[in-house]
UniProtKB/TrEMBL annotation, chain A:
UniProt xrefs under Pfam families: Fer2_4, GCV_T, GCV_T_C, Pyr_redox_2, SO_alpha_A3
Annotated InterPro entries: 2Fe-2S-bd_N, BFD-like_2Fe2S-bd_dom_sf, FAD/NAD-bd_sf, FAD/NAD-binding_dom, GcvT/YgfZ/DmdA, GcvT/YgfZ_C, GcvT_C, GCVT_N
Domain (SoxA A3): residue spans on this chain: 489-573
Name of the protein: Aminomethyltransferase
UniProt-listed SUPFAM superfamilies: Aminomethyltransferase beta-barrel domain, FAD/NAD(P)-binding domain, Folate-binding domain
Natural source organism: Paracoccus halophilus
UniProtKB/TrEMBL annotation, chain B:
Domain of life from the UniProt record: Bacteria
InterPro entries: SoxD, SoxD_sf
Signal peptide region: none
One Gene Ontology term from the biological process aspect of the record: tetrahydrofolate metabolic process
The organism's taxonomic lineage, starting at the top: Bacteria, Pseudomonadati, Pseudomonadota, Alphaproteobacteria, Rhodobacterales
Protein's name in the database: Sarcosine oxidase subunit delta
A GO MF term: sarcosine oxidase activity
Pfam families in UniProt: SoxD
Coiled-coil region(s): none
Gene3D superfamilies: Folate-binding superfamily
UniProtKB/TrEMBL annotation, chain C:
Protein name as annotated: N-methylglutamate dehydrogenase subunit A
Entry keyword annotation includes tRNA-binding: no
Entry keyword set: Oxidoreductase
Domain of life: Bacteria
Pfam families: DAO
Length: 956, 89, 413
């Protein structure tokens, strides 16, 4: 069947070209500009999918993507709105909720079983007979029927883009009101962006009829488009503004692009949503909104039916009837619920020879065999007398609700009059203006005028027009929406997405769910993809009626972003988070390092080359203990503090004393939080009286830096703090031969034992690189930490290698430090660890009146410690499977856990650190450990460090 | 995204800022009010004076913000005229 | 088809189930007044009336029933915590969920499909091992799995992230699951009401009468009532309510945002989360993918939603499952969480003798609905805090005996 109208209809299609796609495997031809739904309709296919619950055939309702009836699957994309998506050559479209074929869906049996499935039925049953019956028996059955489209696990890649724009004024909606607002503000000098979700400007002017004379709208459309083109407005068509966030931060979706627009002023000309009517079988294909019929005809040149009944709940019904008549659709009758002629339009229809039935309602639609399409309509007058009219099209003009969503995101409210038939938006925040149909206006002149007022006020808000003598803001008017009644036999759908009928809402109320939000949750009304755009109002009315309250008391609806569907791909950041590379990254890779992300950085774990990792780690440990190794420690946090209060400041931030730390000396730093828990550690090298260079752990430096900035401001201290973590690289050179390596290199620093003592710091040149050298280390061997501008790092690394140093990795470093009993913040400590628990009381200066955490430390000390970090060795091998996080037990209960553990090749033993009960944590005592295999063993506690107890090796 | 006005750099996206918590009456905790300060942070259904940091420029300042509406009433540097006229937290 | 539905369908007309009675007039006095008609308050009312013979109980709810965080959370039920007191408490919570539908005769759809938390770093693996060891000790089903194990449990997970955030392993918590949040609250409400408990919706507490160390009366927008005992379980409003009673709680409010996609045919059976990415995913019985993460970065008591958080959640979701890029978001929402300094709840006594606290649930209160209700009912009925609740006492802060859970709560809820 060919349903195309003749030339003069179908502004969006190109009749000179054709293409083909498939629907359920059947070939469909389309013109460029067609949507999937319009192309199918042109080919006589009105059923698009089956409904979610009852598997009822569903077709075009709004032609505006406002409902779930038109959701289809296109290849790997689920839940595509067939009435919005442009048809494309070769696409494979399949309907939803179908088992078998769309026309002979096996699931349609469920429609017959509806009486056995009351609202909320799944709460009543499906959990017996056994304890686990829901999970094992019932849920799998219900889950099998859940969901709409199917996710592809291997979809084609898409390129999504994000951009940010700024403008003086963003106008949402390019109907007559939005165009007028944009033109007015642009003329006043505003930088305006106009966003329109349709592919062209004009809104309702492109499809609707505003008067008996259809030409008026066309003239106005041409005029507004010309003016807009001349006004220098940035226009985004096919772009949906999907939400309004604080300070007019507006996400706009255009294809695969998310445009985030910051607008100083905002005009919402978002139009109105035509509402469906409730009657029996109101979901039959062939029943559609008046705007949908008009869109089909004017945009796509598709004849919506052969013989129509038009329900004129408002003026637009009459106007749609005129359009249908113009298009050659036979009109069986125009049905008007009112007895009076409100709009003066019925005479025009009667003159054309059309039948107008006054004081009548639609009570039922009947379908053909299989319920695949409308066959006839039952109409009742006020006396209850029924008439049946054959038709294949029922056009419903049931009134509107304003396009409230963005306004509600902005904090406005949707309100109604007492009778609950008229709606309005109130309480708009500053810098947001309402215009056109969204403000309840329908007369074209008034709509345009409201746009001009909104544009003028926005321009004044921008200071482009004088603030005096402004027109009053557009007064939101009431917009009519026709109430409708339940049908005693049901199938009178309130919510098409969720297949909910009037009785479902009424029964939910009877079950005790009297508040709108409870009804929503209990019945799922409004929870589907159309987000209650059609159901919210009807539901609120039923609730008001059934609970004898006003709509105002019941409330109508709320709205949250997003307005329409938005793909996760659009929202996600396209650049994945990346780990940082040190300046030596390439050098490590070239040396055969095994790299791994650690914290925020890529770090070399070891340099195995082709050898097994474990061998490499053992070799590197021996390298450090017996010769000399070098480790890239560029990942250390690094802070530079300058100013007359620098030392005093450090004294307050850290627990040790820095005020009298000599220039050229390095001191350990321990930072606590206000609760007295360990926050971070590092070293401070005093470069000058008023200048310190401080290191921090890589994970904590950002937090520490922010904390320092806050404290500096709080204390009003004169100290300049810079986070130079990224600017400096650092190399730890360690091992008994470290000094010899350094002395082989040219430079200005005296590396002799006498000239550069333990905990000394020296600045100068080394192998042509400017360095800050500190004689400190984690390994217990003779160690130098060499800090230098990161661009010099590869050169120094190469020079050190040349002079005899070999690289070692993080795994060896971890064991080397464990052998020395050094802790790693964040691994051996947690959010509650105190210095006392770590036997680090020595790091707390007793003389200072204040440091962060001092008061708490003293209070906590007075309460005694509940655990203690201690060193232990396994008496033999590790058959029990002890590892980091193994539990430490006391009286059978976990008292702590192993924080660090490993096999020390130096000592030939398994060693570790663990939290234990304080009484067990003394050398000579034993702790009970539980291995991962649940075997428990006793391990002797030993004094720390495990290796080189007198710390002689670092002093050589 | 919300806009926060940095007293030095002007209005910027709030993603450029780090929230640093409430402004206390005193710079240091005393023994007496230690527990309050550590654990009983203010949580008013109204305006809170709080520390913020503009991270790109490293500016630490005070903002007054309504915790029920997220409205930022004003922002200023410590010790500025605005700070001196601020009501105590 | 189950017999109940057959019987229903063969009957003429709808015989109402009367789950929630209409709000009655306030009595002059109640033995127990429960402030907050969310899951916790309703559960406490149920256990008081069912197991302690206390039926002269009023539940006061300022809005509609269970409309706060009960309605806004993402329904995770789990017990994979880090400390023994927490694990034991939540383990009891999980076991109550396992029998809840039968206990209430109301299907709460507890679906124990297991929760898999991914580790992308050494540190996360270490922390998971500790949680597993603690959990096993306390008798929960939990284990650490390696990367191959992750793939076996959830073949859809993107394992290497293009070289970024490579999945090293995970924590598999077979006890974890979801339940239908509304149904939990309604089920408790229904049975509590049947036992004589009065549920008062749209009834807002405006103040208290306090005499000495006792609360004597509760003032509401609908009148003043006398109260023998008062239990406050007011979710995001806990700080404010306690303040009215002259009690200061260590609570700050932060919004927690979540979002949900359009319904899709089920493909994800388990709860999937990543602590490093601050993201979790679960597919509901309706087929929607629920996506959540951490709380907002600053203190606020508003349920507004933000674009940056939505973008962050989408980023995390697509890192875990890149094939979801075509999937469309349906809704975004927020709840107000009441966060304590140690990210653990406050339960038990208050400075007032007859005023009991159930507060500080932050982002994880739903999973404790049953156990908090049961144990708080026991507390109120016996005027004695049971041992299982003692570690959660309000005065733990002044003793510096915080619960060491700071690492276990991020993005797990």
């Amino acid at each position: 069947m060919n349903n195309r109208l003749g030339n003069g209809w179908g502004s969006r299609i190109d009749r000179n070209a054709s293409m083909a796609f498939t629907f359920e495997g059947r070939p469909v031809t389309a013109h460029p500009g067609d949507t999937i739904a319009s192309a199918l309709a042109a080919n006589g296919e009105w059923v698009l999918s089956r409904s979610f619950k009852y598997h009822r055939p569903r077709g075009v309702l709004t032609m505006a993507g406002q409902d779930a009836n038109t959701l289809v699957q296109i290849g790997d994309e689920a839940n595509v709105r067939a009435d919005l998506r442009e048809a494309a050559q070769g696409m494979a479209v399949t309907p939803l909720n179908v088992s078998g074929s769309l026309r002979r869906d096996r699931g349609r049996i469920i429609d017959r079983l509806g009486r056995f499935l009351p609202v909320g039925f799944y709460y009543r049953t499906f959990f017996g007979p056994g304890k686990n019956s829901w999970l094992k028996l019932w849920e799998p059955i219900i889950r099998a029927s859940a969901g709409l489209g199917t996710v592809s696990l291997t979809p084609a890649r898409r390129h999504y883009a994000k951009e940010t724009r700024h403008c003086d004024l963003l106008v949402v909606g390019a109907g007559p009101a939005g165009l007028a607002a944009a033109i007015t503000a642009a003329k006043a000098g505003a930088d305006v962006i106009l966003v329109e979700k349709e592919p062209e400007l004009g809104g309702a002017l492109t499809y609707a009829r505003f008067d008996a004379n259809a030409a008026d709208a066309a003239c106005k459309l041409a005029e507004l488009r010309d003016k807009a083109a001349a006004a220098g407005i940035t226009v985004l068509t096919g772009a949906t503004c999907n939400g309004r966030f604080a300070d007019n931060w507006m996400p706009v979706l255009q294809g695969d692009r998310l445009i985030r627009i910051r607008a100083a002023e905002l005009v919402l000309a978002t139009g109105a949503h035509e509402q469906p009517l409730i009657f029996r079988n109101n979901d039959l294909p062939g029943v559609m909104l008046s705007s949908a019929a008009q869109r089909l005809m004017r945009h796509y040149g598709v004849r919506p039916g052969q013989r129509a009944v038009v329900y004129a709940g408002d003026r637009d019904g009459y106007l749609a009837a005129l359009d249908l008549d113009d298009a050659g659709v036979r009109i069986a009758a125009v049905v008007d619920p009112e007895t009076e002629d409100r709009d003066g339009l019925s005479d025009v229809l009667i003159q054309r020879g059309l039948t107008v039935m006054r004081g009548c309602r639609i009570t039922e639609a009947q379908g053909n065999r299989g319920g695949l399409h409308l066959k006839s309509v039952e109409i009742r007058d006020d006396n209850g007398t029924a008439t049946s009219l054959d038709c294949d099209l029922l056009v419903v003009a049931g009134g509107y609700t304003p396009g409230y969503q963005l306004a509600l995101h902005a904090g406005a409210r949707l309100t109604s009059d007492d009778s609950g038939t008229r709606f309005s938006i109130t309480g708009m925040p500053p810098h947001v203006h309402l215009a056109g149909a969204a403000a309840g206006l329908s007369d074209l002149g008034a709509v345009v005028a409201s746009g001009e007022i909104a544009g003028t006020r926005a321009a004044a808000g921008l200071g482009l027009l004088p603030a005096q003598d402004l027109p009053a803001p557009v007064q939101a008017r009431w917009r009519r929406a026709v109430p409708s009644q339940a049908h005693p036999k049901g199938r009178d759908f309130v919510d098409f997405d969720e297949d909910l009928q009037v009785k479902d809402i009424e029964n939910a109320i009877a079950d005790g769910y009297r508040e709108l939000e409870l009804i929503k949750r209990y019945s799922t009304v409004g929870m589907g993809p159309s987000q209650g755009r059609h159901a919210a109002l009807a539901t609120a009315r039923i609730v008001a009626r059934k609970t004898a309250r006003s709509l105002a008391e019941v409330g109508i609806t709320t709205s949250r972003p997003p307005f329409g569907p938005e793909k996760l791909g659009l929202l996600a950041d396209t650049t994945p988070e990346r780990y940082r590379h040190t300046a030596l990254h390439a050098v490590h890779q070239a040396a055969g390092a095994r790299m791994s992300p650690v914290g925020a950085w890529w770090r070399p774990l070891a340099y195995p080359g082709t050898a097994p990792m474990s061998d490499a780690i053992r070799r590197e440990i021996r390298l450090v203990r017996e010769a000399v190794g070098m480790l890239d420690v560029s990942t250390l946090g690094k802070l530079e503090l300058r100013g007359k209060d620098a030392a005093t400041f450090l004294d307050r931030i850290y627990t040790m004393a820095h005020a009298r730390q000599p220039v050229g000396r390095v001191r350990y730093c321990l930072a606590l939080n206000e609760m007295g828990s360990i926050l971070d550690d590092g070293v401070a090298y005093r470069l000058a009286e008023d200048h310190f260079y401080v290191t921090a752990t890589t994970g904590a430096v950002e937090r520490l830096y922010a904390e320092m900035m806050l404290q500096k401001t709080l204390w009003g201290m004169e100290v300049d703090i810079q986070n130079v973590t990224a600017a400096f690289a650092a190399i730890n050179l360690t091992g008994p031969h470290a000094r010899e390596v350094l002395q082989r290199l040219p430079g200005s620093i005296d590396f002799t034992r006498e000239g550069f003592a333990y905990l000394d710091g020296r600045s100068g040149e080394l192998a042509g690189c400017p360095v800050r050298a500190m004689r400190i280390g984690f390994t217990g061997e003779l160690s130098y930490e060499l800090h230098l501008p990161q661009s010099h790092a590869p050169a120094l690394w190469a020079a050190l290698a040349q002079a005899g140093a070999e690289p070692y990795g993080l795994e060896a470093s971890r064991m080397l430090r464990l052998e020395k009993g050094h802790i790693i913040i964040g691994q051996d400590t947690d959010a509650l660890s105190t210095p006392d628990e770590l036997d680090m009381g020595w790091a707390l200066s007793r003389k200072k009146p204040f440091h962060v955490g001092k008061a708490a430390t003293e209070q906590r000390r007075a309460m005694g410690r509940k655990r203690q970090l201690c060193g232990f060795v396994l008496p033999g091998g590790n058959d029990a499977g002890i590892g980091e996080s193994s539990l430490v037990l006391s009286n059978g209960q976990p008292i702590g856990h192993v924080t660090s553990f490993g096999h020390s090749p130096t000592l030939g033993k398994w060693i570790g650190l663990a939290y234990a009960a304080p009484e067990d944590a003394k050398p000579g005592s034993q702790i009970r450990l539980r291995g991962f295999s649940a075997t428990e063993i006793k391990a002797p506690v030993v004094a720390l460090p495990f290796y080189d107890a007198d710390n002689t090796r670092q002093e050589i | 995204m919300k806009i926060m006005t940095c007293p030095v750099n002007g209005p910027r996206n709030i993603s450029e800022f780090q929230w640093l918590g409430p402004v206390h009456d005193t710079a240091e905790a005393t023994d007496a009010d230690l527990l309050n300060r550590l654990f009983f942070a203010p949580n008013p259904m109204g305006v809170l004076r709080e520390w913020w940091r503009h991270t790109p420029s490293n500016t630490v300042f005070i903002a007054e913000r309504d915790l029920t509406t997220d409205e930022i009433l004003r922002s200023y540097l410590k010790g500025s005229d605005a700070d001196r006229t601020a009501s105590p937290a | 088809m189950p017999l109940e539905l057959l019987k229903y369908g063969l009957r003429r007309g709808h015989k109402p189930f009367h789950d929630i009675p209409p709000t009655p007039d306030l009595r002059r006095s109640y033995d127990v007044v429960i402030i907050g008609g969310g899951g916790h308050g309703l559960a406490a009312a149920y256990y008081l009336s069912r197991y302690h013979g206390i039926t002269n109980v009023a539940v006061l709810e300022k809005g509609y029933l269970a409309g706060g965080n009960t309605a806004r959370n993402t329904t995770t039920v789990r017990s994979n915590y880090l400390t023994i007191p927490s694990i034991e408490f939540y383990r009891e919570g999980v076991s109550l969920f396992e029998n809840m539908s039968h206990e209430l005769g109301f299907n709460v759809m507890f679906s124990q499909r297991g929760q898999l938390t991914l580790a992308h770093s050494d540190g996360a693996m270490r922390s998971f091992r500790l949680r597993a060891e603690m959990g096993k000790h306390a008798g929960t089903r939990i284990e650490v799995v390696d990367a191959r194990g992750v793939q076996k449990i959830c073949p859809h997970v993107n394992m290497d992230f293009g070289g970024q955030h490579e999945v090293l392993g995970g924590l598999w918590h077979a006890d974890g699951g979801t339940a239908r949040h509304d149904a939990v609250a309604w089920g408790y409400a229904k049975r509590a009401a049947e036992n004589g408990v009065q549920i008062h919706q749209r009834t807002e507490v405006t103040g208290f009468g306090v005499s000495g160390d006792r609360v004597t009366e509760v003032r509401t927008n609908r009148g003043t009532i006398q109260a023998g005992q008062v239990l406050q379980a007011a979710g995001g409003m806990n700080g404010r309510i306690a303040e009215m009673a002259g009690i200061r709680l260590p609570i700050r409010c932060f919004p927690l945002q979540a979002m949900v996609t359009q319904p899709l045919k089920p493909f994800l059976d388990i709860l999937l989360s990543s602590s490093d990415l601050h993201t979790y995913l679960v597919q509901s019985s309706r087929g929607e993918i629920v996506i959540g993460g951490g709380t907002d970065p600053y203190q606020l008591a508003s349920t507004r939603s933000t674009l940056p958080q939505k973008e962050a959640l989408a980023t995390g979701a697509l890192q875990l499952m890149p094939f979801l890029h075509n999937v469309k978001l349906l809704r975004q929402w927020a709840g107000i969480t009441d966060i304590t300094p140690d990210f653990s709840p406050i339960m038990g006594a208050s400075p007032l003798q007859n005023y009991w606290l159930d507060a500080g649930w932050g982002t994880w209160g739903f999973k404790a609905t049953g156990v908090a209700g049961k144990r708080m009912a026991e507390t109120v009925a016996t005027a004695r805090v049971p041992d299982i609740l003692r570690p959660f006492a309000l005065d733990r802060f002044s003793r510096f005996e915080l619960l060491n859970e700071m690492g276990a709560t991020a993005a797990g809820h």
